[in-house]
Specification:
Elements (H helix, E strand, L loop, with lengths): L5 E5 L3 H13 L3 E5 L2 H10 L4 E4 L8 H11 L4 E6 L8 H5 L2 E4 L4 H14 L3
Parallel strand pairs: 1-2, 1-3, 3-4, 4-5
Helix pairs in contact: 2-3
Length: 123
């Protein structure tokens, strides 16, 4: 598994973006952070990240609106929905993603999820 995996964090909360960026950079991942769905789509067209950590509720273009576009633009990118809304846990959106995590879960849970997705994505 490559520790240089590219990950994009899409979340409108600057604190969450900064915290996740710090945690993941410390683990040697290459991180881009964007604050809405528009920025995410632009990023995906320029780069091919292995993983997108996607907040569902963002202003302008939210995670729900970009889920299918992510699959079209970057079909091999794994999607982790990372939201504070438990009500989406069993939704069609959660089933469209590769993993669903609530923001209250530990950073270790997110790191473990990333590692599992990367391991399962290697040929």
């Amino acid at each position: 598994m490559s520790k240089k995996a590219k990950i994009v964090i899409a979340d409108d909360d600057a604190g969450i973006r900064a915290t996740l960026t710090d945690i993941l950079t410390e683990r040697k991942y290459a991180i881009d952070a964007v604050e809405n769905g528009y920025e995410l789509l632009v990023n995906l067209k320029k780069k091919s990240p292995q993983i997108v950590i996607l907040d569902l509720m963002m202003p302008e273009k939210d995670g729900i609106e970009v889920l299918s576009a992510i699959r079209s633009i970057s079909p091999n990118t794994k999607i982790i929905i990372y939201t504070g809304f438990k009500k989406y846990e069993n939704s069609i959106y959660a089933r469209s993603a590769d993993k669903f995590l609530l923001k209250g879960e530990s950073p270790e849970k997110l790191l473990q999820t990333i590692e599992e997705l990367l391991e399962n994505n290697t040929p």
